[in-house]
């Protein structure tokens, strides 16, 4: 007999970073239910329910709506590699880490990438995007990040969707941090492709990437001249499992899907509007309380995400030490800055199950105590 192996016992944390967010016990319990087969009729029925609930949260009637096996980045990669072929032009807005990644993935897919940039902490200029599109009307897609988690900027989408819908260019939106926290409204905004992740405002552990494609985006996938480079992320193969034929492609991550189903049930029981209101009011409460303390926020009020707030690290305070103390003494995890903002900002998330008045109160009192001693 081997020696007893102690299980891993995670420390108690409050996840107030840029993701993952706190996961409610009901979702964790759902994931602990018995695994069944991925072609079991009961599981196929569950898949249909998940797709239906995702449509509600995305605000879309798109038939092609399903979760990709993999984290939010897998959703990004799936969207780009299925919609782009070598030599295609793609216009990508870059005002933070995730726009930069989108450009990188599009480039790896063989596209000629035209970037439209904005300062980190500012939204992309819609006129600049439209002007760039007029110069490159043959672009296959134009992609932007709805909620830039590296800065806390909410990108306005309304005008872009209406404009692109009149053209041959698909409108692609990264909704990883926005879905379940602020309205995404895929159909109303004429978004052709949106992908998300489970670990941000849906408050389900990382591992799945909800994705939705409009009919014209699906037409683009069907009319490709070349095969998608990735076999695993090829939407025509994945669609055959999720759609009518139920053909085996890869084994669905069964228990992860139980978790997503339960997380979506929680979203719909709360009601999407009530959920947006909860994020909005608590986000504003946190932001106003920080400003009252004389702290400076990176993003102008109009473009602030309620679910992610970037605070400038006050002069004289050691960024790493502050975050370490916050974690060790209070069990609160927040994020540091990325790229040019490394060491410059703290990123505080109020996503999904973390978005409670207790989290705001606890963070503010911990902040006061720590800053007093620094
Ligand atoms: C977190 C995030 C991603 C990547 O998701 P992972 O789950 O880390 O793979 C992509 N885009 C945005 C805007 C994100 O916040």
Provide a short characterization of the protein structure:
The protein is an alpha/beta fold. It is 40% helix and 15% strand.
Explain how this protein is built.
With 374 residues, the chain is α/β, with parallel strands linked by helices. The protein folds into two domains: 25-268, Type I PLP-dependent aspartate aminotransferase-like (Major domain) (Aspartate Aminotransferase, domain 2, 3-Layer(aba) Sandwich); 272-372, Alpha-Beta Complex (Aspartate Aminotransferase, domain 1). Helices cover 40% and strands 15% of the residues. It has twelve helices and 14 strands. Strands 2-10-9-8-5-3-4 form a seven-stranded mixed sheet, sandwiched between helices. Strands 11-14-13 form a three-stranded antiparallel sheet, with helices on one face. A two-stranded parallel sheet has the order 1-12. The longest helix is centred in the last third of the chain and has 21 residues, at 272-292. It is globular and about 65 Å long. Bound molecules: pyridoxal-5'-phosphate.
Task: Say what the CATH topology of the largest domain is.
Answer: Aspartate Aminotransferase, domain 2
Task: Give the termini distance in whole angstroms.
Answer: 52 Å
Helix and strand composition category: alpha/beta
| Ions, cofactors and other bound molecules | pyridoxal-5'-phosphate
Radius of gyration from the alpha-carbon trace, in angstroms? 21 Å
> What is the topology, as strand order, of the major beta sheet?
2-10-9-8-5-3-4
Written as H for each helix and E for each strand, in order along the chain, the element string is EHHEHEHEHEEEHEEEHHHHEHEEEH
Q: What's the CATH architecture of the largest domain?
A: 3-Layer(aba) Sandwich
The helix count comes to 12
Helix content: 25-40%
Low-confidence blocks of residues: none
